Amino acid sequence: MEVKKKPEEEENELVLELKGQLENEHLTPVEKLRLLNDSLNNALNSAAVHVNSGELTRLKSQLYLSGVLIHCVRVLSLHPSSLWGDLSAAATLAHLTSSCCVGVEPGPHSETFHRLFLPSVVDALLSLAAQLVNRTENVSLLRKVMDSVGWLLAAHTHLTEKVLSSIHYEQIQVCDDVTVSLLCVQMWIQTCTANSDFLSGLSDDSILLLLNEAIGQLALSSDSTVGGASLRLILLMASQLGRCLRPLLLSFRGLDSLLHKDWRGRGFDRGIDQLIALIQSEKDVVSQTQGSSEHVRAACVIQAAWRSYKTRRRVKSLNRAVSVLQRKYRARRREQQQQKEAQLWEEELKYQVCVRRQQARRRFHQKQRQLLQLLPADQVQSYLQECENRAAVVIQSFWRGFRERRHYSSTQRHMLRRERAVRMLQRGVRRFLHKRRAAKVPPLPPFWIGQKGLTDSRRAELKQQVDEYIATHQSFRVSPEECSCLHEEVQLLLLSVLQTGAQQRMEEQRVEALLAHVHTQLELLRDAPPLSVVTETDADTFLSPSGPVAARARDAHNAMLQASRLPWWRMLGDTDAGPVDPLGSTHLPELEEELGGLYIGGTVADKKQTQVDEVKL
User: Which of 371-380, 453-462, 548-557, 559-568 has the lowest mean pLDDT?
Assistant: First the structure.
């Protein structure tokens, strides 16, 4: 088993070694070109020597999967100036690359191989051929490159459309050299001869382009070799395609006369007679077809005339046509009337909505006027001013919003779109550059590998280095005495800050204690029993521990009770005249009688009961 695996292992090692050498960035394009030629030539020759035919296919597949063929395409796509004019080696590499692309088994990468890689190979070969066209001394090299393209087309038919639509192939066709034209025609002849199913796998457009190229050579060239090759290509296409090619030949009018006048007596009259006979036979078939089509067209005209006459006669005999027209007209008129009524109803509804909205606005203003009458005289003007300010703010906000939206839609939208596009491009470029730099930087080992802790000897060494640096780089602005003074001042300031912080913490603790006491008092007031069931012992728990606070609260409560009972016209002049004692001796009996004996400012004997009432009120 080891003896059978040895050739495969050797091939894999050779391919991997070649790939590693090609990935070396220090190699020049010429060195890569020579390396590829030597390596591929030796590998293909050694694989072809084996008796097993699968060795060569396996080698080609390994070359594609490892990326060696991609390097070949890149080298072929270079300009001749970068290859130092070594076009012979480039043509050899083109031949080897074409040979490696035939018989490859890409496996799961089949779609990528046929749709992306093979078109790139064809484009590189045609580019090299276009560069060799203008050099008359490189005819043999051009022939080798064109043979490589033909060999590739014979194996992969779907590349024909790529070749015919290529810009490089058009440059080759434009060349006036007879040898170049002959090589192009011979390439197609060899391709059709090597693969008999080549033309049957092409589309009609590709066949028409190929036929156009051959007939174009007959029309433009006067060389007998080019004409004979073009005629041979047309006859080969006719023999392989059969009747499918004949309609395409008729699209080139005057082809038979061109062959008879310009190409008679050139040594291939037999082929000309065959092609002319083929064109004439197709013309006869077309003429017969045209005659039969004229008969069919005449029959269609007669049938159409008869059917129209028959239809008109039936319409005249039928009275239902008028009734149908009338019914449709009446339905249309009824639909228009309904649409008009619906429109009038909608307009009436809009009018009613406007009227009701106006009435609601009028009622709102009347209600607002009535409420204004209940306000004090000195507050009316401030209230109206506040309403005007609110209305002005609403109007200004709507106007500014409309103006900003219009400004944004007219000027800012385009700028924002451009800025967004610029940011997107910059973000993509920065991401690409970051990835590129990260790929070039070698990976760092983990921080825990190879790291040691700071030992005492290392710490002493670092301290010695710091002291030496300070001694060497002394500051000329501050002396050591000034540094010691500054150090003492900083220590004093730090001490004062710490002392101040202790005082502030004591003050905060005192404030927190007061807040806790206030919260406790508020919870007691919230959970207090009603006045109907309260006792004197319960009332003592709600008395304030401060006498002045209790007296001030009682006076403020009595003042509010009297002020709430006064008429509004008595309070018009009290706002500017300063505080007035509302608990006069004349009003106390009235208030006490009105409140049902509630303590207002009575005797000392009723003091505790009054305090309890004040707490609940």
Answer: 548-557
Six-digit token pair at 551?
Answer: 């007296």
Interatomic CA distance for residues 545 and 534, integer angstroms: 20
Report DSSP state, residue 529: P
Segment 343-356 mean pLDDT: 93
Please indicate, yes or no, if residue 116 is contained in any of the structural domains: yes
- Domain holding 183: CATH number? 1.25.10
Q: Is residue 487 part of a domain?
A: no
Is residue 124's pLDDT more than 70?
yes
Residues 241/207, Cβ–Cβ less than 8 Å: yes
Structure letter (DSSP) for residue 581? -
| Count: domains in the chain | 1
Contact 75, 32 (CB under 8 A): yes
Distance, CA of 348 to chain centre? 51
**pLDDT for the residue numbered 197:** 76
In a domain, 75, yes or no: yes
Domain that holds residue 81: 7-285
For 12-27, the three-class secondary structure string (H helix, E strand, C coil) is HHHHHHHHHHHCCCCC
Closest by Cα among 272, 180, 169, 250 to 220: 180
Q: Residue 384 above 60 pLDDT?
A: yes
pTM comes to 0.44
The residue among 169, 175, 171, 236 whose CA lies nearest residue 200 is 236
Q: Would you say residue 109 lies in a domain? A: yes
Q: Is the pLDDT at 84 greater than 60, yes or no? A: no
